[in-house]
Amino acid sequence: MAEPLPSVLSLAQARDRGLTPTQWRSSNFDRVTRGVRRRGATATLAEQAAAFALVLPRPFAYSHMTAARLLELPLPGPVSSVGAHVEGSVLDVIRPSASPRLTRAGVRGHRGLDRRRTTTVDGMPVVCVADTWVDLGELRGQAALSVDDLVVLGDEIAARLRLATVALIRAELGGALGRRVRPRRAVDLRAALGLVRPGVRSPMESRSRLMFVHSLFPEPEVNGVLRDETGQWLMECDLVWRGQRVVAEYQGQPHANLRARSQDAAKRRLAEDYGWRVHEIFAADVYTRPRRIDLLRRIAADLRLPPDTLRIQ
Q1: pLDDT tens readout for residues 86-116
Q2: What is the signed CA dihedral for 221, 223, 165, 217, rounded to 10 degrees?
Q3: Where in the chain is the domain with CATH 3.40.960.10?
């Protein structure tokens, strides 16, 4: 019995299996790109990338936005929607500097693979997270990321790579930046690098911290551990101002159910019993100006910060 055909097939594979030109052009297969056919439309970016990988010239790697999506990095909403649909999406493909820039329908060609490190995702070569961070920072126009967006990405990369200190973060991300020749938006990338911190657990933790930094508050400790007078562990809090015994907790979707809310309430009572002032942060406190100003003013009062030293807006 003949071996069944795979769902994705290159022209070379079809010839090896003895398919005739008529069978290759059969309506049973949809054209993905020149030299690749597939039964049914591609449903995910990874499937699209795997299909193209059958015919892309070696060496290559997926880069920029394609790498960010394959690596599941947290892209901001407006940017994540740029070319995010699979049908008709454009794949970013990078090749060595000495190779010609790739030109193929459905591909955006780049050069400079020799100055980047790579990893694999589902067997496909993909530019690593640190170099992808620099690539995204260099983007302009509709796909440009803000400094805060780059900090959010950097915090995620630091957590993913278990970079436990600022020095390790700067060695990894700064090293990727240093391998570039005259990178675009270098000022923004360096500004973001200076704000990336270890130990962050979510994008909104990053944005909450940056809200205080931009308002000229003392920078809070990230996911700091609170202890009792004997040194016993009490709890861990998202943002901690230890000297003033003030903490802030971001309340996102995982905290929405009744059990989580009960645990949060118990945690707050325990912290307050030990003399800590606890503030909850919600998305609207970060993104909505009146609520942001109100929250910042309340926390500033607990921190005993002179209003004229702050930039609350």
Answers
A1: 555 799 999 999 999 998 999 999 999 999 9
A2: -20
A3: 203-309
